[in-house]
Amino acid sequence: MKQSKNLGRRAFLHRGAGIAVGASAVGGAMTRQAHSQMAPPILGKTPDFIIDSHLHCGGTEAWLNDVLRIYRPRKVMACVLTRMPDMELMRKATRDYPDVFIPYGYVDLDDANAVREVELFHQNGFVGMKFHSPQKNYDDPSYFQVYRMCEHFSLHMLFHTGVTSRKISDTPRLQSATMMRPMFLDTIARVCPKATLQGAHLGNPWYEEAAEAARWNPNLFFDVTGSTLLKFIKLGRLDRMSEILWWASGEAAENPHTLKGGPGAWEHIVFGTDEAPTGLESNIERFQKMLDANKVPDADRAKMWGLTIAGVIGIDPRTRKLIPKTS
Q1: Do residues 185 and 161 lie in contact, with contact meaning Cβ atoms separated by under 8 Å?
Q2: In this structure, how many other beta carbons lie within 10 angstroms of the beta carbon of residue 216?
């Protein structure tokens, strides 16, 4: 597998522009259910190009139909986090509908087969990898082999960061949000400088920690899925995001404490849902409210909605197709 070059700095954000077409044409027709049940229009301004960078595979044909029914009419692509039992389902969906599905794997870092599973996902055309609930801190050296394998195969790595949901239960389980703090991604981004990383939920509740980790790592991005925007909207503090994401791309010339040539704060944020397919519209509306409340420039908005992730994983924004990687 040919490794991606160490692009560094702003180049991570611009790989999506002008990419040559390389993926196969869309195969097959939508199922009758997906074709007949069209999604309602989104109120307000709708971006021309959106990638949902954080969608979990539902594992059934009914779930696939829901994604096609809701995402395809809006021309939204989805990075689908897929566990090993659903690999074939997602491999086929990606083959039949490459304009919608972007396949990611999902492995347990503490599983003895983790490295082998990463390799299998790569061999089946998956372009990203999801990690959650480690039994040690994310930056424990025992996990580095998995991360370096992802770096070698140019697999974008998505980490859950911050608090995690649970059900009320008396069953003991070794799981803690403190093992998934966003600053651990700072270590991984430095150990694997050719890799690209994404933290989920902007590290909720460690937002400032997540932002400061991103400030020094041009290959580190965060989504704001989950309860993050819901919380800020409820508190009337969406504009607080400007306090967290405070630096600009060009200020390093006069500020030695900002990465010279690095991207601005908003360029580290990407759109995602982390909900059922039916949650797409409400997530778009929340994300739009955040952008408006913080007066984010249009050029940055386009990157956040999809161009950044397109550049990271190799999607041509014009054709909405994956670029095949040569060995």
Answers
A1: yes
A2: 14
Radius of gyration of the CA atoms of the chain, in A:
19
pLDDT of residue 253: 75
Specify the amino acid at residue 39.
A
Q: Rounded to an integer, what distance in angstroms lies between the CA atom of residue 203 and that of residue 268?
A: 13
Please count the CA atoms within 13 angstroms of the CA of 132 that sit on its side-chain side. 14
Beta strands in 57-137, from DSSP E residues, in sequence order = 76-83, 101-106, 128-131
Residue 278 CA to residue 283 CA, distance in Å, equals: 10
> What does the mean pLDDT of the chain come to?
87
Ordered domains of the chain (ranges, CATH)? 9-24+41-166+173-322 (3.20.20.140)
Rounded alpha-carbon distances, angstroms, from residue 124 to 23, 116, 119, 157, 310: 14, 13, 9, 17, 20
Q: Which of 145, 148, 87 is nearest to 121 (CA)?
A: 87
Q: How far apart are CA 197 and CA 313, in angstroms?
A: 11
Quote the pTM value: 0.85
Encode pLDDT of 255-268 as tens digits.
788 788 889 999 99
Dump pLDDT digits (tens) for 42-70: 444 668 899 999 999 999 999 999 999 99
